[in-house]
Each structure stands twice: as structure tokens, then as C-alpha cells.
Amino acid sequence: MPAGATYEPIATASPSGTSDITFSSIPSTYTDLRLVCFMQAVSGTLQPALTINGDTGTNYSNTRLVGDGASATSARQTSQTEMTLSNSATATTVPAIFTADFFSYAGSTNKTVLGVASADKNGSGHVERKVFLWRNTAAITSIKINVYGVNVASGSTITLYGIKAA
Amino acid sequence: MPTPTYVALAKTVLTGTQATVTFSSIASTYTDLVVLINARGDDATDISTMYVRINGDTGANYSYTRLFSFGTAVNSDRAGNQSNFASAGFYNASTSTSNTFSNVEFYLPSYTASIKKIISSSSAVEINSTSSGVNGAGASLYGSTTAISSLTIVNNSGNFVSGSRFDLYGIKNS
Fold first, then answer.
1. pLDDT tens-place string over residues A98-110
2. Ramachandran class of B25: left when φ > 0, alpha when ψ lies in -120 to 50, beta otherwise
3. N or C terminus of chain B: which is more exposed, having fewer CB within 10 Å?
4. B76 and A72: CB-CB below 8 Å?
5. For A15-74, what is each residue's pLDDT tens digit?
6. Interface test with B, best of A85, A97, A127, A159 (most B CBs within 10 A)
7. Which of A114, A120, A156, A164 should we substitute to test contact with B (largest number of B Cβ atoms within 10 Å)?
8. What is the mean pLDDT of the segment spanning A137-142?
9. Are B141 and A94 an interchain contact pair (Cβ–Cβ within 8 Å)?
10. What is the C-alpha to C-alpha distance for residues A68 and B16, in angstroms, rounded to an integer?
11. What mean pLDDT do residues A71-87 have?
12. In chain A, what is the greatest distance between 2 CA atoms, to the nearest angstrom?
């Protein structure tokens, strides 16, 4: 007999406009979290960035691997104030997908997050894989998705899933 | 009992060679789709690629950008106006280590929305070679706003071999 659903939606947003999105009061009853952002902009470029538990201090770092269709590069950033899901794979009037996996988010160690950005515009595109570190041992109870005033198109969806281990 | 939100919709496990695998009549009641593949090909090379065709569309409506490590090098490429999308579907073929199958994932968000479709993919091929093996990631665009109701996985050259497995999952966000 299965124990029940192990991959559950915790919260879903259908952003439209320029407002940031925050998922708060995240329960601690799961093992991992998965954020899936399917986003398109009315105009401009959209590079969503995450902050955890309202922390805007310089407590984030990342190492990334990026392909733009012509070359592949690797880079890293230290002491950042947020986790930018992509430095280059932007959602424009063509949609992009961004995902972030938060492992052992309720544990008492610093938090590691794996980010994936996928965008293609039939002539240009970016694929990006990132590993983030949030140097904080607190349980994750809120995640804010910052869009920096870019007008997000109707039809975009952001969902936070909880994953339970056996 | 919680409502299942990550649901197995269909699976195909090959009992012989087959060049394509199709999932048809895909229900529109989910938010996202995931295809997980564990496959091997019979074409005469060590690493091959697979393609995905949507709704049987063979028009030049696909494009892709890929990022992949191949042996000791890291590369990125892209192509536009394709009749299939490739998107990093790398997998073992006949001259690679025997009895070795590769893992490929395609993630298709908002597959019923009336906007263009973006597909994220990843694949891993390891063959105990100092010069080969692939870790790949990709983004693909399907330039149609029609809901996705069928997916066909296409071998680039040759067939998928017996034992290759193709699973389709639906994810609900509410």
C-alpha cells in the first residue's frame, strides 16, 4: 500500500503584471522543495531571482555552467544578495522555464539549491545549470520570486511542490 | 489520502527493436508533462541522439539550444527551423559499453496553454571511456500554440533496442 502522494503542490501563482511573487508559510513536513516557473514577458526580458526567508544580505553564492548555442562557459559569484535563476536565459515574448530544487530545506545545515534555466527563441537561446548556496541554517519558510518590474504575461505559472521521502 | 499530482500516464517497454515510440491521446487535465527514458540504440556509433515530434508535426517549427560535455570538452550549439527537436537527447548506441542504457528526461510545462511551448531536457551517457560520454542539457521551442496531445520519440538513426523504456507522467499543480 503506497504511503500516499509524495509530490504535492504547496502553492501556485498565475503572475500577470509587474508584481513579485512570494510563497510564505511553507510547511516543514516535506523532505525537499521544487519550484517550477513557466514564464513569459509582455515586453522586455525576465530573469527571475529568488530570496529566501526575506534575506537580502550577501549570503548567496553560485557556480554556473552556461551554453548560448555558440560557446559554453563556467563562472561563479560570491556574496550575492539573491539567487538569479539565470544570468542569461531570459523569458521574453517567448516562454522560458526555470526550476529550482531545494534539498533538505527544513534541516539545520546551510542550504544547497540546484537551478535550471531553459530558453530558446528559434535563432538564439540559453541553457544554464547552477548550484546555489544560501549560507543560513534556518528552515526555509518563504521564497520570493523577484521580477524587477518586468511585465509578466498572462499564462505564466509558478508552482511550489513539496516532495516527501519515504 | 492526498490527491496524486505526479501521475504515471503511460509506459512503453520495448520487446524488440523500434524506431519510434508514440504517446497519443494525452489527456489535457494536467499542468505539465514529464517523459523519462532509459534507452539504448542499435546504430553503429557509441552515442546517438533522439528527437521528439509533437502532435505529428513534421514542419520546420522546432528549434533548440544545447549545452553538453562530450568527453573532455564542453560545447554548446543550436539550430532553428527544425523538423524535429533534438534538445540534448543523447543516449548509448551499439558500439558503447554493452548492456548500458542512458537516461533522458524531457519536461514540458503548460502543455495545453495556447502559447508557444518550451521544453527543458537533460541526458546522461557514461560508457567508461576517456574520450566519450555525454552530460547534456537542452532547451527547445515548439512554435505552435496548439495543445500537445501526442509525443513521438524518434531515433535519429536506427532503432531503440529491446528493453528500452519510455514513461510519460502528468503533473497537476492543484
1. 999 999 999 999 9
2. left
3. N
4. yes
5. 988 999 999 999 999 999 999 999 988 888 888 999 999 999 999 999 999 999 999 999
6. A127
7. A120
8. 98
9. yes
10. 38
11. 93
12. 50
Distance, first Cα to last Cα, chain A: 13
| pLDDT the model gives residue B55 | 96
A119: nearest CA partner in chain B? B139
Q: What is the mean pLDDT of residues B109-113?
A: 95
CB–CB contact B63 A126 (8 Å): no
Q: How far apart are CA A93 and CA A91, in angstroms?
A: 7
Give the residue from chain A lying closest to B136, CA to CA: A127
The strand order across the sheet containing B20-23 reads: B20-23, B151-155, B47-54, B90-92
CA B131/CA A127 separation, integer angstroms: 24
Share of chain A above pLDDT 70, in %: 95
The burial class, CB within 10 Å (0-12 / 13-18 / 19+), for A25 is exposed
Residue-wise pLDDT tens digits, B63-90? 999 999 887 889 999 999 998 776 778 8
Q: Chain B: which residues have CB within 8 Å of chain A?
A: 1-6, 31-32, 63-68, 74-78, 80-81, 88, 107, 109-110, 113-122, 137-141, 143, 171-174
Instruction: Write down the architecture of domain A6-164 according to CATH.
Output: Sandwich (2.60)
Q: Residue B151: name the closest of B36, B21, B8 by CA.
A: B21
CATH code for the domain defined by B4-173: 2.60.120
**Annotated domain spans of chain B:** 4-173
pLDDT of residue A91: 67
Pick the residue from chain B with its C-alpha nearest to A121.
B141
- Quote the CA–CA distance of A140 and A148 in Å, as a whole number: 22
- ipTM (interface pTM): 0.89
Does B173 contact A95 at a Cβ distance shorter than 8 Å?
Answer: no
